[in-house]
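We modelled the chain as a single entity of 150 amino acids. Its sequence is:
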Amino acid sequence: MNYRLVHIEFCRSCEEVAEDYMRLSDIEKERIAGVDVDTTFDYEDEYENYSSYILISSVELENYKKILDDNLIPYICTDISESVIYNEIYLDEVLIDKIDKYNIKSYEDFTIKTNDWIKSNLNLDIVLDIINKRGIDSLRDIDKELLKSI
């Protein structure tokens, strides 16, 4: 799996993260702008902390985290790739209350790309594991499509 799905939580508002960005050197700003992200969905949580779900290569993620670490920008990065693929985290349910009129298009694009990513990483063994652990009623449409194609 070349790409990972991560949740990055900043313990600060969007405005504060923007201020952190402004304090970066021009070279670091260029490095962040050059980070190859497949898709992202950003929002502020109920505590007004900026969060982002990002589909990104492992190498690019390490580059991004290095910039944050070097500049002492606090964050929590959680790799949720396996949990999403194994349907332990159902993104639509997690993100439904984060969608608003400002980020709906971003959410739609994010959903399309993450579903494509799930499909590319899903296999029969994973779907059977999901059925074993949570039953057939827990299957997503993506899981059912894979079963139909076999």
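As a brief sanity check on the tokenised model: The chain has one domain: 3-119. The chain has a mean pLDDT of 93.
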